[in-house]
Design brief:
Elements lengths: L1 H18 L7 H5 L7 H10 L2 H11 L9 H16 L6 E7 L4 E2 L2 E2 L4 E13 L4 E9 L14 E9 L18 E4 L3 H8 L7 E4 L31 E3 L2 H12 L5 E10 L2 E10 L10 E5 L9 H23 L9 E6 L4 H9 L1 H6 E8 L11 E4 L9 H20 L21 E3 L7 H4 L8 E6 L17 H19 L6 H23 L4 H20 L9 H18 L16 E3 L14 H6 L1 H4 L14 H11 L6 H12 L4 H13 L3 E3 L2
Parallel strand pairs: 6-7, 7-8, 8-9, 12-13, 12-14, 14-17, 15-16
Antiparallel strand pairs: 1-11, 2-3, 4-5, 4-10, 6-10, 11-13, 15-17, 18-19
Helix pairs in contact: 1-14, 3-13, 4-8, 4-13, 8-13, 11-13, 14-15, 14-16, 15-16, 15-20, 19-20, 20-21
């Protein structure tokens, strides 16, 4: 009777959720917010974690231009190791993986390290006898972001020619750019293909407005981060300027004025290493200490790169400091499983680590990844707790949601002037409510590597988006909030400590958590289903029930689920299925839909990595443009989203029809022929093969 009463109450909650928009955490959850951790542990973490300490480390890291394998990255990595040693974590070290442009780490072609020594761009003024320096437009020493990444050495004095975007042959019609410097609105890497490789330009000046948000054009003084292709055919250099400066040049050139520039660059790529900082807090349980809960971030970025991603780097560093100190003081017990901390170059460093150290990859049970977690009010950031891909359902995301809801409620009470036992604020930071949002999977950081099916590691992704200063010279420590750092660190620390100690006696509390969240997800599903035709609606219902059941099954990654919990789950899902309505069975696959593929175990990682795209390189850029799935726009996702999940769903058992049905439920209906076409293209480059 008690069981039925709880489900009946849950069903009533479901109808309220369908009828009205409510916060993604409920008052019942908040009242039991510490149910997953003893209150003394919650109190200890809340008291010890320091946003100020995290920000002091951020201010140090943000001084360095942290490109992969560069001197700046090394300096930041050495600071992390030094701090970890001071915090009592003695195994902290920098691991090196060779990077020469030839070695592959799964789907990542290693990119040689890149360093710059000097770079300046001057506008010249004509006197009676010669051109002389007039205005310095860019300086590597003063603002490294003004030199595009992977620029090569060169020196040239030449006129500036406006080529619009610089990516179409129409942009060059009637313009003589050989030996000149071109002004372009696109990223330098895409401009160089025509401007430099085909038409012989000597260099590029770009004002590319990357990472567009609602605020992207409001501040014309921002200088944005630019990139050249690491593996370009011809070496060149590129400078980045503000939109304001670009418009000034355009108006003058349009009036017929000659704009003459002098560029000098000493920079280039060289053989070296991917460097990855790793450290651990060893587990104490002899049966579990070889299993790990990992913290991930990415340490590389342009200077200052404060929120992206010095913030994530120092947030996990602060977790390491706090856990180490609390354990040594006896305020919390040493965890049963080992907790690992990882500071790599973004995506490519993670691929290098997991491929070169399969022993590490095999031990990691879950990852908490932090990429941009400190944006203050000026950045306009919204804090997200992002779920893993729907192809890899895991309860660990619900654990993070649970603790984020707790911080939301406590910080909201505090902001209203109501006494809250855990306000989670820093004296030097803000006092507003966190208002974290739980959102569905999105691409864009190292979490997509861990969650790739070749590794299959569930990932919690904490991140800010949007951020109006991302990839610009205004991404400074001044715009990072210590309170936000503390709150992100708490959500991560609480989640990791719970998972590191997780055993089967917590199966029932996790199930209750999943049931509560399942009702909310079901309400969302019902709203989506109402907009679909009958067959697609039935497909969505089938996928939803599979997903919710698989969340329960995912506990098996940590322990054997007790039979009592299994019985409780079966009762819940049986009644939930009755609530949703009769779900028709899957239609038998016909024709091409019957094909079954499996992944090539020798090629680990997603197709699109960082600074290198495995699919484009092996399939060919021209042929890639013909793949219709990559251009498809669904109800809730675009081509790259579909491509990631289609590849992730290949497991040697699913048919092409089943893969199509699953991605249609996730992102919106897509024709089977588009999915099959993409699978065949993957087969042609031997990353998957047909199961005979």
């Amino acid at each position: 009777m008690m069981r039925k009463s709880r489900l009946a109450s849950g069903i009533l909650t479901l109808f309220f959720l369908v009828a009205a928009c409510v916060p993604w955490w409920t008052s019942a959850q908040v009242q039991n917010a510490t149910a997953l951790l003893p209150e003394p542990v919650v109190a200890a973490l809340s008291q010890e974690l320091s946003g100020e300490t995290a920000k002091r480390n951020l201010e140090h890291i943000a001084r360095h231009h942290r490109m992969r394998g560069s001197r700046g990255f090394r300096a930041a990595a050495e600071h992390i190791v030094e701090q970890l040693h001071d915090y009592g974590i003695r195994d902290a070290r920098i691991e090196q993986f060779p990077a020469d442009g030839k070695i592959f780490y799964g789907t990542q072609r290693s990119r040689p390290p890149w360093d710059a020594e000097f770079a300046e761009l001057w506008e010249l003024r004509q006197t009676e006898t010669r051109w002389t320096p007039h205005v310095r437009l860019a300086s590597w020493e003063a603002m490294p972001v003004t030199l595009a990444q992977d620029s090569e050495s060169g020196e040239v004095t030449a006129d500036l020619i406006d080529v619009g975007s610089g990516t179409s042959e129409r942009d060059y019609a009637g313009k003589h750019v050989q030996g000149k410097i071109v002004l372009a609105s696109a990223q330098p890497g895409s401009v160089a293909v025509l401007a430099v490789d085909r038409f012989g330009a000597a260099g590029i000046v770009s004002y590319a407005q990357n990472q567009r948000t609602a605020w992207w054009a409001e501040n014309e003084n921002l200088v944005r981060w630019g990139h050249l292709d690491t593996f370009a055919q011809k070496p060149t250099f590129a400078f980045m300027i503000s939109l304001k400066q670009a418009r000034n040049f355009q108006s003058r050139i349009a009036r017929g004025e000659h704009v003459r520039l002098h560029a000098r660059v000493r920079a280039g790529k060289h053989a070296g290493f991917y460097e990855v900082v790793t450290a651990t807090i060893p587990g104490v349980d002899p049966n579990l200490r070889n299993e790990e809960i990992a913290f991930s971030c990415h340490l590389d970025h342009q200077r200052p790169g404060a929120n992206d991603n010095a913030s994530g780097s120092v947030a996990i560093l602060e977790v390491a400091r706090s856990l180490s100190k609390l354990i040594s003081e006896g305020k919390i017990a040493r965890p049963a499983r080992t907790i690992r901390f990882i500071w790599p170059p973004e995506i490519e460093g993670t691929l290098a680590l997991l491929n070169a150290r399969p022993d590490v990859a095999s031990r990691i049970k879950a990852v908490i990844h932090m990429d941009m977690v400190g944006g203050g009010p000026e950045t306009k950031a919204i804090f997200h707790v992002t779920r893993g891909p729907a192809s890899l359902p895991s309860f660990v995301n619900d654990v993070a949601e649970h603790f984020a809801g707790f911080v939301n409620e406590q910080s909201a009470q505090f902001a209203k002037g109501i006494t809250a036992p855990y306000p989670m604020f820093s004296p030097e930071g803000g006092k507003e409510a966190l208002q974290a949002e739980m959102v569905e999977f999105s691409l864009g950081s190292d979490h997509q590597v861990y969650s790739d099916s070749s590794f299959g590691i569930p990932a919690i992704y904490l991140n800010d988006w949007p951020d109006r200063y991302i990839h610009t010279n205004f991404d400074t420590p001044a715009n990072v909030d210590p309170t936000k750092l503390k709150r992100a660190a708490f959500i991560g620390a609480a989640s990791a400590y719970f998972l590191a100690n997780l055993k089967s006696d917590y199966a029932s509390p996790i199930l209750r958590l999943l049931e509560s969240h399942s009702l909310r997800r079901t309400s969302t599903m019902l709203a989506r289903r109402a907009r679909l035709q009958h067959e697609e609606a039935a497909n969505l219902s089938r996928h939803h029930l599979w997903h919710e059941r698989t969340l329960v099954d995912s506990m098996e990654r940590f322990f054997r689920i007790p039979q009592r919990t299994r019985d409780e789950a079966n009762t819940f899902f049986g009644e939930l299925e009755g609530l949703i309505g009769e779900v028709s069975p899957t239609t038998n696959a016909q024709g091409d839909g019957r094909w079954v593929f499996r992944r090539n175990a020798k090629v680990k990682g997603p197709m699109s990595a960082f600074g290198y795209d495995y699919f484009t390189d092996h399939y060919g850029a021209e042929r890639e443009r013909t793949i219709r799935l990559l251009q498809h726009q669904g109800l809730r996702g675009a081509g790259a989203d579909y491509a990631y999940e289609v590849f992730n769903l290949v497991n040697g058992r699913r048919t092409a029809q089943e893969i199509r049905d699953t991605v249609s439920a996730i992102y919106g209906p897509i024709p089977l022929e588009l999915v099959v076409e993409y699978l065949r293209s993957l087969e042609s480059i031997r990353v998957i093969e047909v199961v005979k």
